[in-house]
Specification:
Structural class: mainly beta
Oligomer: single chain
Number of domains: 3
Radius of gyration: 23 Å
Largest sheet: 8 strands, mixed
Strand content: 25-35%
Low-confidence stretches: 1-41, 345-358
Number of helices: 9
Number of strands: 36
Mean pLDDT: 87
Helix content: 10-25%
Shape: globular
Length: 614
């Protein structure tokens, strides 16, 4: 790609110990597209080396596992693959201590309180763990919810606010003790930040922000803007939300194309010429915490899987590009100046209907390092540190500094393939974040609307694959999607097996207790009533599917989906026509989809209550 064809504006961004040059490509307001040499933008293919499978399967990428404490020199890194928490002195640099957690805890987000203690979320352990970084000892462990995801410290009240994937928003005293408040919002909560007397809570797949007032009521719902006025894209998958300086909030997220998607070779990478190229693109949006307005938003070229970001005191931004860890010549971190976001478009109000804001496409170089990058942070000297999961290290590339965290290998080719830029600026995890799905409905040029399918919970036994069951085995699916549509390299049989083997270890999300167990019991009886309702005719066995491809009156033959974990996968049906499980029993559910027309509204409510627990 030649700079002369791009009309780039050069922006100087000091960071990482030396000046960085970012290239901001202006929007072509007449066509809402950018000129690409050769049409479809493709990069080099990833390289995975000898195939290896970890005996302890690594967990899907989540980001946000590195924090530099207020002293500017002490780093706390959580290791979800090895269930450890590391305390490091960045001035040494040296590893101070390793705190071992319970097997399967999957430690994630970290905050520091006024006493200098850190609080770590155990994403699958369902707890918040207090640690004294000075001694490397565990002070307290408190159960909080089955799937804690985001945590914030409210200094004014000396309390912790925790957002859970199951919908709980829990408040705990930082010094210990039971929860003082638990609100139930909605599934898929991600991060939480304190904004004055309010809590701003992000949702993962829909990339929205729920504003919770001091009294616990929802004050507003903010929809992130699309980066471009004329493009056909919508925000999705809010990987990370952080409080910034001057009362601003930063969110790194993805944007997904809403126009026609080509299934011709390389179609997922081309995206019809929209934006920076590709049907999924990375973006960063900055919001004003006092006005709830968009300060700026921009697309980030070459950033694949933006699972984390950091901002230093000088306004330098580093966004993780975890998908480029195995791609030669592509940055693992995209580094630029905050001014390139602030100046990317006029502020636009957000609200229930969302808004659009003019943005730029930012071509920004950044550091890279050996290993698989999973998190980033700046220290007090504005040095950028990158956390890698394999090998487990903290690295400051600009200063040639390294801290080994563990020599216990978790190398896994399946994990690497799933999370790598295929060559078309997209990874499997772009549409299947954390191994699940992005909730997006794609308008395929030759298929019509299709909703992303989830990969959680042992998909191998559910062949044939895809919406119409057109691929008899995993190899056929990879040949069509990964190689054909994503421009990925042809995988060898052992690589295909490693990928399938890792995908089949992706766990289901932990379920929160049902609000009405009696309704669940009634719904289960209805579900199992083969004579009058008929759900188990197709949805039976451990996966709750018979793997058949049938016509239930929705316009064609479609694969019977698994119902395990179905409550997490709104919208429903192959085309996403049902926004809720209740809607599935309406007109879009099909005329031959069980025998449900005789059910009362109360019975459907009970049936939905049961389905939500699967």
């Amino acid at each position: 790609m030649k700079l002369a064809t791009l009309g780039c504006v050069m922006v100087l961004a000091a960071g990482c110990g030396s000046p960085e040059v970012a290239m901001v490509r202006p929007l072509d307001m007449t066509t809402s597209t950018f000129p690409f040499d050769g049409g479809v933008p493709h990069g080099p293919p990833p390289s995975f080396g000898p195939t290896v499978t970890s005996p302890v399967p690594p967990v899907p990428l989540s980001g946000g596992t590195l924090r530099v404490l207020d002293d500017g020199k002490t780093a706390v890194a959580t290791d979800p693959d090895r269930d450890n928490v590391y305390i490091a002195d960045l001035t040494g640099p040296t590893l101070l201590s390793t705190v071992a957690l319970n097997a399967g805890d999957e430690p994630g987000r970290i905050v520091e309180d006024a006493a200098g203690h850190v609080h770590v979320l155990a994403r699958r352990g369902g707890a918040v763990i207090a640690i004294d970084p000075a001694t490397g000892t565990i002070l307290d462990r408190r159960a909080v919810c089955p799937a804690p995801r985001g945590i914030a410290y409210d200094a004014a009240a000396d309390q912790l606010d925790i957002a859970c994937a199951g919908g709980e928003l829990v408040t705990l005293p930082a010094s210990g003790g039971a929860a003082t408040r638990t609100l139930m919002l909605e599934r898929d909560l991600r991060d939480v930040v304190v904004v004055g007397s309010q809590l701003w809570v992000s949702t993962f797949r829909s990339a929205q922000v729920i504003v919770v007032d001091a009294d616990g009521t929802i004050g507003a719902r903010l929809s992130l803007p699309s980066s471009f006025v004329l493009s056909s894209m919508s925000p999705s998958v809010a990987w990370r939300m952080l409080a910034l300086a001057n009362g601003q909030i930063g969110i790194v997220h993805q944007e997904s194309v809403t126009g026609p998607v080509q299934t011709s070779p390389g179609g997922y990478g081309g995206g019809g010429g929209v934006g920076c190229g590709g049907i999924v693109q990375s973006a960063m949006t900055v919001l004003d915490g006092s006005t709830s307005q968009v300060v700026g938003t921009t697309l980030l070229d070459q950033a694949v899987l933006p699972a984390d970001f950091a901002v230093d005191a000088n306004g330098n931004v580093s966004v993780l590009s975890a998908g480029n860890s195995h791609t030669l010549g592509f940055p693992q971190v995209v580094t630029f100046s905050m001014s390139s976001i602030v100046n990317s478009g006029a502020p636009a109000p957000t609200g229930n209907t969302g808004s659009m804001a003019v943005g730029n496409c930012l071509f920004a170089g950044g550091p890279t390092t050996d290993g698989e990058a999973i998190a980033v942070a700046y220290d007090g000297a504005s040095r950028l540190w990158i956390q890698t999961r394999e090998p487990a290290m903290l690295v400051s590339p600009a200063f040639n500094l390294k801290i080994s965290l563990s020599t216990d290998s978790r190398a896994d080719t399946g994990w690497a393939i799933f999370h790598s830029n295929s060559g078309g600026n997209i990874a499997c995890a772009s549409c299947h974040p954390e191994g699940g799905e992005d909730g997006h409905i794609w308008e395929f040029a030759d298929l019509g609307p299709r909703r992303t399918q989830s990969l959680r919970g042992d998909v191998g036994p559910t062949a044939p694959f895809h919406w119409n069951g057109e691929f008899p085995d995993f190899g056929a699916l990879l040949g069509n999607v990964y190689v054909g549509r994503m421009s990925g390299p042809k995988l060898q049989p052992d690589q295909e097996q490693a990928l399938l083997g890792w995908v089949d270890t992706i766990p289901l999300l932990p379920q929160s207790p049902p609000a009405d167990p009696a309704a669940v019991a009634r719904g289960q009886s209805l579900f199992q009533d083969a004579t009058h309702v008929g759900c188990t005719t197709c949805h039976a066995g451990t996966e709750l599917t018979d793997n058949a491809t049938v016509d239930v009156g929705t316009g064609g033959l479609f694969q019977v989906p698994r119902l395990v974990g179905v409550g997490w996968r709104a919208p429903f049906m192959h085309d996403g026509c049902a926004q809720t499980l209740t809607d599935r029993f309406g007109s879009c559910g099909g005329t031959q989809h069980g025998t449900t027309s005789q059910l009362t509204a109360a019975q459907i409510s009970d049936l939905v209550a049961y389905l939500d627990t699967l």
